[in-house]
Amino acid sequence: MVNYGANIQSLRAARNITQKNLAEILGISRAALAHYESNRREPDLTTLCKIADFFDISIDYILDRTQNEKINTNINIPLLSTTTSIEKNNIDYDKNNIEKYIELPTNIKADFAFRIKEDTMIWAGIHPGDIALAKINLPPSHGKIVVCKDINTNHFSLKYYITKNEKVLLETANPACKDRELKPAENIFGCVVFIIKHPPSVQAYRNLMFEKNLDDINWQKVKEKSASYGLNSRKLYTLINLADKIRTLEDNDTSDFDYDGGK
Questions:
Q1: What pTM value is reported for the model?
Q2: What is the number of domains present in the chain?
Q3: Domain assignment present for 263
Q4: Interval 172-200 mean pLDDT
């Protein structure tokens, strides 16, 4: 008896793909794939070709006509476009949420991937366009980079997981981005295990350098102006804090006082 069902099932398990997701890749129902894997129904030639192409093996191997074939044991993980339902050891998504599958060697233990769309971690060398690989069942601990949901979009977001004074903080690696406290009901999707870098274009590099040079020039002017008034960095910082307090008082003042005298 041809045990094609067991062969399909072992190929799927070796590549870390659920029955649901393989069925979506093949364009068949999950029930149909379950029938194939249990030998209750034979796959047609078109489906056999799709299975063989996806797993990079021959149809003969699926049909038990040869055993002398090198099996690709690399795993496939989904490159997800938006946040989705992720629980321990399980990712619930549909094909519309998968950009493609990424093939990884078995030594990289990751469950899903996504393209980074924000600049929260640029000072840690992680930039928009890079691809983050994450593991679901790694418990977050102090100092790890975790995957959470951006509070303004439906995209994945990277933050440092920091424990401090019995609280959990989500810290960025970009001074322009705000850190925040982890909310009790908020979901941590997993921990980052690897980053696939996206090389920036020369124009992106030049734009970054232009902004940096302009910023450096502006700060140099601030330093020179402060020095002309005999202000060092500490005194300037004190003045800025004082100005901010005055501005806050003005914003909170709802009186209609007439500065020319009287009310």
A1: 0.56
A2: 3
A3: no
A4: 84
